[in-house]
Design goal:
With 229 residues, this protein is α/β, with parallel strands linked by helices. The chain contains 8 helices and 11 strands.
Length: 229
């Protein structure tokens, strides 16, 4: 499954930058501007990882971390604290409260992405596979490349995320609404027929040399990746 990351950051410019760069890496990203809203969002939809600022309005990041670790349903959610508090005592407090990693601002975006991958590999190994290989299709999540039968397949970012999701569940039928929620995100309004358009583009790219179509249309139900043809 494509990892869902909740970014809790009250600085608009940084939140936008994080959203852009993490989406570019293929993650599904939600934003929260304060600790209170973050707890509500997590209660409604459990993320696969939280990037958490310490200094937040309403409820501090360290308190958010403490509350998440107290609850059974959120105890094991990976948390990376991202903060300007760089003293050793602050770092120790953050890790002791339950953060899985601690990054001090200013930071390099490449370092944050590498830390996210490392935490997911350690705590959510199924979400952090660098490569998906099903049938004659290979999805390289790090290089953002797709090959079929050893030949490069060129996909747009949405088609890439769509294929990535279908590759994770071969044979399972997904409705248009389920694909919208998984690939576009539940907080984005997109018409269901948009899925048909992107499925069409994905098919055209994958079947460029008259290979068997791996995507099965199930009437009145949705779509499935059928690698057995």
């Amino acid at each position: 499954m494509t990892p869902n990351i909740l970014v809790v950051e009250d600085e608009d410019a940084l939140a936008t930058l994080l959203h852009y760069n993490l989406e570019k890496e293929g993650y599904l990203v939600a934003l929260s501007p304060d600790g209170e809203d973050a707890l509500l969002q997590i209660q409604e939809k459990l993320p696969d990882l939280v990037v958490l600022d310490w200094m937040l309005p309403k409820i501090s990041g360290i308190e958010v971390c403490r509350r998440l670790r107290q609850r059974t349903e959120t105890r094991n959610v990976p948390i990376i604290m991202l903060t300007a508090r760089g003293e050793e005592s602050d770092r120790i407090r953050g890790l002791d409260t339950g953060a899985d990693d601690y990054i001090v601002k200013p930071f390099a975006m490449s370092e944050l992405i590498a830390r996210i991958r490392a935490v997911l590999r350690r705590l959510r190994p199924g979400l952090a596979e660098d490569r998906l290989h099903r049938g004659d299709i290979i999805v390289d999540r790090v290089a953002h490349r797709v090959k079929r039968g050893g030949k490069e397949v060129h996909l747009g970012p949405t088609e890439f995320r769509l294929l990535d999701y279908l590759m994770q569940h071969p044979g399972r039928v997904f409705s248009r609404e389920q694909l919208l929620d998984a690939v576009w995100g539940s907080d984005v309004y997109v018409e269901a027929r948009t899925v048909d358009v992107h499925i069409g583009r994905l098919r055209k790219a994958l079947n460029d040399e008259a290979q068997a179509d791996p995507i099965r249309t199930v009437r009145s139900a949705g779509y499935s990746l059928d690698l057995d043809g």
